[in-house]
Amino acid sequence: MIHPSFLRHLLALAALLSSAETLADAIEASDTLVVTATRSEQGLNDSLAPISVIDRDDIERSQAPDLFELLRLEAGVDIARAGGPGGQTSLFLRGSNSNHVLVLIDGVRVASAATGAFAWENLDPALIERIEIVRGPRAARWGSDAIGGVIQIFTRRAEAAELRAGLGSHGDRRVSAALGGERWRFAASWRRNDGFSSQNPDGFAFDPDDDGVEQRGATVATNLPLGDGRLELHGRVQDGRLEFDQGESDIQSYSGGLDYHQDSNGPWRFDAHLLGARERLETTTAFGESDIVTRRVQLGLQAERELRAGLDWMVGVDGWQEDGVLRGSWREDRHTFGVWTGLDGGLGDLDIETALRLDRDQRFGSELTGNLALGWRLGEGFRLQGSVGRSFRAPNFNQLYSPGFDGLFAGNPELAPETAEAIELGLSWQPADGQQLQLNLFETRIDDLIDFSGPDFQAINIRRARIRGLEISHRVEHGPWIAASQVTWQEPEDRDSGLRLLRRAKTKAAVQIDRRLAGGGWWGLEVLYTSARIDVAQARLDAHTLINLRAGLPLGEQWRLEGRIDNVGDRDYDPLIGFNAPGRTGHLALRWTP
User: Fold this and answer.
1) CA–CA–CA angle 57, 58, 63 (5° rounding)
2) Which regions form coiled coils (predicted)?
């Protein structure tokens, strides 16, 4: 049975879509460029991959306190958090596992080599300039991990000074600053939240005390002209300390590198990079203490040549060395090398994106992946498109070598990589620059899915998964109004048991409406519907609808008062089994831009 509140959201979505034709003439031209789908610049509306872009203007209007609130509104994204701010956060892209999405920060692979996960909860939106979300397999361009897609985060590129300070519910206080010039940029943030009891009596380690979090972070970059190109040095540091029932954790992460981009007007364009990341996770629980340190160094070179107007050929090589250690247990390292090529562009009314990649993993041998996408321009702004792709993911260090707990949940050195095949059919409509409606049908089949199973819950390759879905997304700007909406239907199924994959909703819909006001102010509304989900032991997490409000009011030329209220209706729901949601919360901040 369809939930009544979901029907209301569908009506709102339909109203937005039906207004597209009348608003088309009012939309200004957009020159949004994206780089993640093909590893080269292309127009957002030219890409054959479904892409969502969250730019700095979107982030500032949203005032989202963390990535959990920012990303949960996007098509194809399910996100689950254990408790309140700073709680462990898992992101599922198109119903795939949380470690089936490749996460990049300024081109650097940042997921832990030990757990395969990225600490979404530890990165402040104040340090982010733009996010590109590419849905669907991208292993043929990027290598391992990109089964569900790729999410690339670009750090702040402030052109002037900015200072922001705020207070909020549960003792939340935060400060952020950003400044930059033609050849450099810097941003920093600090946050402390006293929290609330993250677990309820259904939790496995319930303790009614408040569970707080403190986070600090900074990004820095400089660039210099070099020949007919530019050299950029960039870095990021992040630290987060979280209290949870019966324990605490401290995570420190670093990433950065050196990039060279050639801006020649000749037939060839070259890019080279030397990148690195390090993460240390110290955790204290009732089971004891753990201290995991992982490092990764990346090298890459790619070349691009224009074969004819609008048709480009790319070739590249890259590789990375990973090492990790669990104090008192395992110490391992491995390297991966890949070579790839791709062809992108248009031939008349036919658009094409194709890529082929061969990876050689020191432990698991060779993996061949590919991707082919075709689009046919039908006229009147319509384009029919389809794609197929193959991807894989190598097991992480914990899945291979973890000692487990008292003989349970141990790793397995005999694991094989997970593999996946995907097919997609889509229709896009672009009646004017800056506006696009997208419909995408997709199916992904994953084999050798790694699970902790059997009498000792050891990691083994036993499961198969099939994920079918439909995404509809739309965005339009008209005068002072900005409206964005999306709805996702999906069936993420474990093909061995016939059960739904955990923590993924079958239906999700979101609507965002913002209105700019005279003098630089604005107000906005978010509505998010999430259908029922299944958690561990087949526990049911009920459907819920959340309404959030945000606004900004200028106080002279240099000051602005900003505010946000989350969960206006104070809806009580369980984000995960045994965990509490924050309830209604509010944040108020003052921004200074001299």
Assistant:
1) 100
2) none
The whole-number mean pLDDT for each consecutive block of 10 residues of the chain, a chain of 594 residues, reads: 44 41 38 90 92 96 97 97 94 96 98 95 98 98 98 96 98 98 96 94 84 97 93 98 90 98 84 98 87 98 93 97 95 98 95 98 96 96 97 96 84 95 96 84 96 80 93 92 96 91 96 94 97 93 98 96 98 93 97 95
What would the two tokens of residue 53 be?
């872009």
d(CA 368, CA 356): 8
Q: Is 157 exposed, middle or buried (0-12, 13-18, 19+ CB in 10 A)?
A: middle
Rounded to two decimals, the pTM is: 0.93
Residues 6 or more apart whose CB falls under 8 angstroms from that of 56 comprise 128, 129, 130, 156
Could you give the angle at the alpha carbon of 122 between the alpha carbons of 546 and 449, nearest 5°?
A: 80
What class, spelled out in words, does domain 4-592 have in CATH?
A: mainly beta
Q: Extract the runs of DSSP E, i.e. beta strands, from 479-535.
A: 481-494, 507-516, 522-530, 533-534
Domain positions in the chain are: 4-592
The Cα 294–Cα 217 span in angstroms is 19
CA–CA distance, 80 with 539 (Å, rounded to integer): 15
Task: Look at residue 12 in the predicted model and tell me its pLDDT.
Answer: 44
In whole angstroms, what is the distance from residue 73 CA to residue 547 CA? Answer: 12
Q: How far apart are CA 150 and CA 137, in angstroms?
A: 8
